[in-house]
Amino acid sequence: MKAHELIPREHGAWAMWIVPMLSSALVTRFSAAFAVLFISFTLLYVVHHPVVTMLKRRSVPRRRDVLLLLALAVPGLLAGAGIVFLANLPWLLVFAAIEGILFAFSIRSFLARDQRSFVSELVTVAALTLTAPAGYYTITGSLDEKALLLYSLNILFFGSSVFYVKLKIESIRSKGGWSGEAGKALAMMIVYHSVLVAVLAAAALYGVINPWLLAAFVPVVLQVILGALSHEQKVSFTRLGVVLVFQSLLFLAVIGVFLR
Predict the structure, then answer these.
(1) Distance between CA atoms of 121 and 115, rounded to whole angstroms?
(2) pTM given for the model
(3) What is the phi-psi region of residue 160: left when phi exceeds 0, alpha when psi lies from -120 to 50, beta otherwise?
(4) Which of 73, 58, 56, 49 is nearest to 1 (CA)?
(5) How far apart are CA 254 and CA 256, in angstroms?
(6) Rg of the chain over CA atoms, in angstroms?
(7) Helical residues (DSSP H) of 129-180, grouped into ranges
(8) Tell me: the pLDDT tens digits for 108-132?
């Protein structure tokens, strides 16, 4: 198994689970249990990519590849199990079950070549950002309104990228035009971000969130506005991934300061 087949190269996907998990530590505190959870999820996330690749190719894995995956998966599972039983955090089993169901759905969509549909992408976002409440619970031992708020903010933020990337894909296919699927993607992106802005504005107005948290969403909203106005026929998805990483770091910083 080659290195590029073992390590997922999607910068955005890495950000979608690392940033939510780190946000849970920033709004609470770092702990040894959190560090173990982070290591566990990292190992299992790395295993996920080559497994999907092998299933897609419908190839019989070589013995050394199986041993390599087991060398990553077994410590990851043991680390997760250790937290559950040694730290007495049974709800992590529920998180693990939900993650398993959502990732099974994403694998099914990948094999059916439907991984770029809105539903599949949003399910993936929901699965990856679940690390926010999981990390919060691991550190505090409880699930409360703040955990739900943290999860909601992460879903809203990373859900934005689903609609933006879909818009760019369809725009390329339509050669910069907004007809057919490109027009549908544009409309859905506008609806999503209109709802996002309305929900966040209402939450800030009624004191559910600190108004300064709105700053975390300014870059993504500006990006979609510019994306709707542009008619690019060539898009670098590597650059889009890097941009998402920088937006995620700003989001993480704002959450860490204003959701404590």
Answers:
(1) 7
(2) 0.87
(3) alpha
(4) 49
(5) 5
(6) 19
(7) 131-140, 145-173
(8) 766 666 555 667 778 888 888 999 9
